[in-house]
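Two quick folds needed for the group meeting slides. Do the first one here.
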Amino acid sequence: MTTYKLFVSDMDGTILHNHTKIAPETAEIVRAAEAQGIRFAIATGRNYFNAKEILDEVGLTCPIVSSNGGRVLTETGEVLHEIDLTTEEALEVVSVLHQDHKYSDVFYEMYSEAGLVASRLDLIDATMENLKQNGDERSLEMYEFFQKRYYVNEDVRLVEDIEDFIKNEAGRVYKFIAFSSHFEKMSSLWTEIDERVEGVYVTSSGNDNIEVMANGADKGHGVKKLAEHFGVDLSEVVVIGDNLNDVPMFEVAGKAIAMGNSHEDLIAISHHVTERHDEYGVANALKRVMNGEWK
């Protein structure tokens, strides 16, 4: 029987019981796994500080692969690996996004060394209103997430001229994420960035968004860096996730587990499917790994 030594979980749609919190019951199972000798880590599209804040709320301290692999940090915050977009690549991504005749209602954020940045507050408000009107579970969760981010915590820096900010203040740019409830525009935007901007990797964590990083900034590379750091063979790594940005880590790990709410393409390459994120899917999967049911 393979003894798994590292368990890596996505956040949104996976270990987060809703869009903002890890259930205390899940945190307890994570601690039980760690006591049994299974290291735990997070691999997320979120920035490091936001991911760490969520973990801190339930008393978990672990390595974090953030920005879809753009940054890999140990449990103490030591940077193991970073890969960022060049200034030219970042500006080219912005030039595509700023085609108002195509993407006037597409809102985006940029993850940078200087923090999380957005521009055009009118688009934030419009995006939130569209999400609220959609009324489905994910849209309402996203609406509440944006409302907290912009109007409660105010943890996003709003800038007037993002091109100037990229050139003079941003430092390293790790990721762009663009949102729209018009799903066909997300598909068109994905294709255009992929074709026009060299040196970037485009993926998605939901059909209402796309994410843009430098080539090599993906969760697969992030998981490899963690495995190397801990001296763990990839065959001894378990990963769990729900969407397309999890595909690279599914392709490198010894065991890949999809959530019950996963994208069909992810389920197709998984070894097992667990319950949904709001049905303690991660906790149940971790129990099955611990007791040898999923060998």
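Then this one, please, same format:
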Amino acid sequence: MTNATQPIILTGDRTTGPLHLGHYIGSLRSRVQLQHEAKQFLLLADTQAMTDNVGRHQKVTENVVEVALDYLAVGIDPDKSTIFIQSQVPELAELTQYLLNLVTVSRLERNPTIKEEIRLRGFERDIPAGFLTYPVSQAADITAFKATLVPVGDDQQPMIEQTNELVRRFNLTVGREVLVECVAVLSHVPRLPGIDGKAKMSKSLGNAITLGATPDEISKAVHDMYTDPNHLRVSDPGQVEGNVVFMFLDAFDPDTAAVDEMKAHYRRGGLGDSVVKRRLNERLQALIAPIRERRMQFERDRAGVLEILRQGTMRAREAAGATLSEVKGALGLNYFGS
């Protein structure tokens, strides 16, 4: 178990679908390591996922267990990391309500992350209120556990800045240090594109390789991967930059010297796409096979997985409840002495 002097980390995923290799390279591997170095809370963000899935709530709830299975399959240990369900910790919703009083609508609309996500979803001015205010919900998630470190991508830095703004505003308002500021832990791993070359890898876009993919699904995905459209013959010089196969090899092939040699050969010509894809397929099959096997083992005991989530959620409620009690006390909302 983690030592009380260790840093507290909060991280998590929206429960809108099974996790894929983009999640694995971007965060899951580091979370497995971090659980040995810090007190880690892993949030299954179903409440947040509801903010832009109106009418698709069943998809959100069904994927809670799917994401939990992925966590367990990659090596998250529930004895070292607290895995919990956001919607089942009502203390987070109450803390969100108090923090909402400390931020304006115009400040939320200026948040670069929110602005970009509103654009991507085509909301324009028809923005669901829950979606607009989810940075405050995220701030509650972080501050409820007094997390000091929050692993995020570059695009999420504005969310951490807004969290710290709210922490400072709250502490100034009540005249004492109650909530704790956090630090963004940035991933140094480039974001993986989809197998079609598009910037975003997503199961819903059909351009992702999930962590539970079968051997045939992996082989088909690699076969369909975007390479260099001008590399028509084996003898033609090929372009490595923007070539999805080489981007995946950079991410998953530990033999960097061999990959560098393949890149040089590809650039000068004489190396076919099929050879490069064959190597990548071998690497991905070896990587995913044990993850898939562990996932299948956990899936056979879904009741056991739900029990892990129940216990983790109880621990999360205890931690969040302690912070909420401090917050309510600082605001004078402890009418009955508790």
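Slide caption for protein two: The chain has a mean pLDDT of 91.
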